[in-house]
């Protein structure tokens, strides 16, 4: 239990959040959050849930439920996690273990015909690297369009206005790597 505070602090720092910013979002005082991070007090389950939501993680991650995963760096095909699907039919899968200390997120983006990434990666920051595995995807990046074919890559600042749309007649698959992690 003493490591909860350490995990909260590390995740907060990874997201470049100041203690008072997170405290304000969670609805506790900076002093209370500082005590939690130093393991001098423990949050209620409601406070812990709010902290997890504001750090874009889970309560399970903060309490260390997946720490044994650090000992196994392999994510087998059966362990790939489905994350979400948007209205146009694009699906996102997490390709790495949940780990509060990781420096990047890796996703498989599976585009249905004519689907795009609307609703995904909207509050992103940092840098993005994408590698097209199959199909064809048009990236609209800061007013310019780029068509990626299998094997092509694109690298950009996540704050740059961007969109990605499947321009292939079937399914397209894209590897999306983002640093720091923040989905």
Automatic annotation (TrEMBL):
Q: Give a yes or no for keyword Glycoprotein in this entry.
A: no
Do the record's keywords include Cell wall biogenesis/degradation? no
Could you name the Gene Ontology cellular component terms for this entry?
Answer: cytosol
Give the record's keywords alphabetically: DNA-binding
* GO MF annotation: an example: DNA-binding transcription factor activity
> Pfam family of this protein, just one?
Cupin_2
Q: Where is the HTH cro/C1-type domain?
A: 8-62
Xref: CDD domains: cupin_XRE_C (cd02209), HTH_XRE (cd00093)
Q: Which PANTHER family match?
A: HTH-TYPE TRANSCRIPTIONAL REGULATOR, METHYLPHOSPHONATE SYNTHASE
Name the record gives this protein: HTH cro/C1-type domain-containing protein
